[in-house]
């Protein structure tokens, strides 16, 4: 989620607020019908979360796109979540378009029909289930701690009394705050306790934590995020290392707003059917191997 991209994200949200996608004069009786009627599905995701979702700086917007003027097209985005979202659009016979609101806005619910669905690596938690509906998981990741390569820190217990970064309104922030209610995961999915005396430094996204370390920021020694993000950071040459062992595991799914003006049940059912088929026929595994170099679409044993 993004320093240089913040203004662009606000413009997207402002534009979409003027023409909310759920209602907008549609004659459809539910959200799936409205999507098919207009010919595109508007997916919220993150433009700065490589390799899950990030801008394709070489992509050219097609002149004949049905996407709203301030939404991004499939040519302008790339990544694992992006490919999953495109598969959703293809399965419905519509174009996939992308909105990029802040993560805190997505997880807060009450989207006011500004986008249809989130395909943005959202962890299913108890708290989020009160305001959002979820699809079946489409992949699973371990949450880990990464630190600056020159920090000298090699284990979790050495983080006691240190400052760590996390994306705002993420499960990573909830774990660092030792807020089990907000984390909303079963005890069996939590593998480590937060080191004593940790100070939490929230940024717009956990990816910004890694980028800040790379730029020389020194008010925190590390960050918590998905193992896939840390692996991508290391592959990109960022001066960080991953501490051994996951701190918890995440079931990641598409999310739907319970307060949507139009009923989302048929859309959720269609996405569930697609994800189950993609699990069964290996398409999700193929996408996982493409973007992560491993298959993380199988539920942890």
Provide keyphrases for this structure.
301 residues, alpha/beta, D-Maltodextrin-Binding Protein, domain 2, 11-stranded mixed β-sheet, 3-stranded antiparallel β-sheet, 14 strands, 33% helix, globular
| CATH level-two architecture of the largest domain | 3-Layer(aba) Sandwich
Strand content: 15-25%
Structural class: alpha/beta
Measured between the Cα atoms of the first and last residue, the distance is 31 Å
CATH topology of the largest domain, which one? D-Maltodextrin-Binding Protein, domain 2
Cα radius of gyration in angstroms: 19 Å
Write down how many β-strands occur, each being a DSSP E stretch of 2 or more residues: 14
The geometry reads as globular
Please identify which CATH superfamily of the largest domain we are dealing with.
Periplasmic binding protein-like II
Order of helices and strands: HHEEEEEHEHEHEEEHHEHEHEEHH
Question: Nutshell version of this structure?
Answer:
The protein has 301 residues and is an alpha/beta fold. It has helices at 6-18, 31-38, 80-92, 103-107, 126-129, 171-176, 180-183, 206-214, 227-235, 265-281, 283-292, and strands at residues 40-44, 48-49, 53-55, 72-73, 77-78, 95-99, 117-123, 132-134, 139-148, 163-167, 199-203, 222-226, 240-242, 248-257.
Please describe the topology of this protein.
Blueprint lengths: L5 H13 L12 H8 L1 E5 L3 E2 L3 E3 L16 E2 L3 E2 L1 H13 L2 E5 L3 H5 L9 E7 L2 H4 L2 E3 L4 E10 L14 E5 L3 H6 L3 H4 L15 E5 L2 H9 L7 E5 H9 L4 E3 L5 E10 L7 H17 L1 H10 L9
Parallel strand pairs: 1-6, 1-7, 10-11, 10-12
Antiparallel strand pairs: 2-3, 3-5, 4-6, 7-14, 8-14, 9-12, 9-13, 9-14
